[in-house]
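Example record used in the benchmark description.
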Amino acid sequence: MFHGWRMVGVAFGAHFVASGLGFYALSRLQLPLAEAFTDGARGPITMLMVAMSLSGFVVSPLVGSLLTRHPLKRMMPAGAAIMGCGFAAATQATELWHLMLIYLATVPIAVTTLSAIGGNALIANWFDRLRPLAMGISQFGISIAGAVIAYVISFTLELGGLPATYALFSAVALLSAPILLLTIIDRPSDRGLLPDGDAAAPGAGPSAPPQLAAWTFDAAARERNLWLAGITAGLCFAGATGMLMNAYGLATDAGYSDLQANSLLALMSLGAALGKLVFGWLGVRFGEKASLGIAAASEAAFLLLLSTATGSFGLLGAVGLGLGLSLGGVMPALSALLARLYGAARFSGAMGYVGPVMIPFQLLGAPVAGFIFDNTGSYDLAIYGFAVACGLAVFTLMQIRVENRAPEQYQE
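Model output (structure tokens):
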């Protein structure tokens, strides 16, 4: 069996831990955190997502640079350990600012190192023509985490409240570190192989990775495609973070039970999981750019349906499934597009610098939806705004020029 598919499994696990604990959990924890720290107000709790985004604005380029220069085998376990320590500290939080500091200082480093850059860089190293599909399969872990985390949190909240929940998060993250250390192989050349499973020429030993000039801020700022890709994904992720963070509240406000609200989150996550595979296949079949465009357009369509679907849980669940399908396609399509534009050796740096372009949009999604609800009693205005943002994403994507660029042009 080609080692690359084993690395898909490793990346799957890294995505599961990072996104499940660092992102999806906040959606299910919004109401318990609001009850514990803000007398029920939801808007302030969404500032945890803002804190993560602000930190990611600084952390993303730094992590991208480090992952370009240091082995993933060392960096990804370090990210898991940092996450575990952060959640251990969260068990002792007594004020919202305690959690704010934790989500500002530790979680973004961990998520970026494990998943957003690290896990995707591992796949970019091991695959070329099959990269969109491999990205989609590995990122299936993100959505599977979203499908199960709400039920796990409901159990731990009943068992021991927020401290028990964060203690479980810490244990899972800390256990992941040694597993990653033992299983990660950075690139196919370390096993005398080529990407996609082709064997190296007889007698050829492992080749050294190309020596490329490091990304600089000035170089990244001049990359038109980098800006356009970041804006496209950011506009889509504004709706993703906004609605995923508030989906549980949307369902309970419509009169549905805790079980039904958890089921809506699970359906959205299931749709996102399927979206990873569907849009990964579309990327192989029609190209990474087309795959991302279809994801953005379908997200806009399902958002427009969402505000009219709350009267029937069956309809709400179906729209949630479709919305999740669209949301799930954005990240694998973006990752594969960046790898196509800049090559595997430059991928970590590209992902690192595209982060600050996306983050301002992501930063606005959850708090805008939360504060709109606090002031109007409805998420409708936020939903319509997110749909318009996805329409704009299709326009910006059309401006990207895809061309295969030889990595030699970047060599020192």
